[in-house]
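ok posting inputs for the S-adenosylmethionine job
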Amino acid sequence: MAFTYFFRDLVTLHAVRDYVIPELRSHRYINVWDAGCAMGAEAYSLAIIFKENLSSYAFKRLKIYATDLDEESHDFGRIIREGVYPEKAVKRIPGDIFRKYFLPDGKPGHFKIADEIMRCVSFQKHDLRSLEPMRDGFGLVVCKNVLLHLKPSERVDVIRMFHKCLKAGGFFATEQTQKMPSETGRLFKRVAPNVQLFQKK
Ligand SMILES: C[S@@+](CC[C@H](N)C(=O)[O-])C[C@H]1O[C@@H](n2cnc3c(N)ncnc32)[C@H](O)[C@@H]1O
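and the output
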């Protein structure tokens, strides 16, 4: 199972705070797709960033679709639905955020994420190679440390699918080391030089 941890990529989370949330906060629905979410730390980190930067009224309109491969050996869905994580997954969370959104769980060395954060994240099994979008009208698609597992042509097809399911002006974020393929570059504009965050043209 791919081990991931909360607040793994602060630069991208800060870019979501600074560029994405200000544009999405007035939207009637705020739909986010975290594609290749592994155990859910990334999806819940995103939910916390939105919670910290939205009014409680706007936060109620946030829905995060967290998806990953349908593999028997993975237990992503159960972990995400329980929202209980070991200390090594939560130790990089800034202290004030950690105290606000995590409580010790009955299981020693484990912490449970607050219900208000869990409520806006739903998990579904999904293979990006299907090229079937979860839905349309996303304000943000995050797909980090996943595209490197695909062949270059599959990567292009998946990014085209992301572009199609974003609403006008919606955002796509990937990891720092993942460059936008030339085939899909004209579909997006880069939002900031230090982060792989793109806006649908
Ligand atoms: C290294 S983890 C990245 C987790 C998280 N996005 C992060 O950056 O912390 C890669 C994840 O991509 C998922 N993955 C790989 N190929 C995929 C595909 N075709 N469709 C959906 N998920 C895929 C794996 O199952 C794994 O959970």
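notes: The first helix runs from residue 10 to 24. DSSP finds nine helices and ten strands in the chain.
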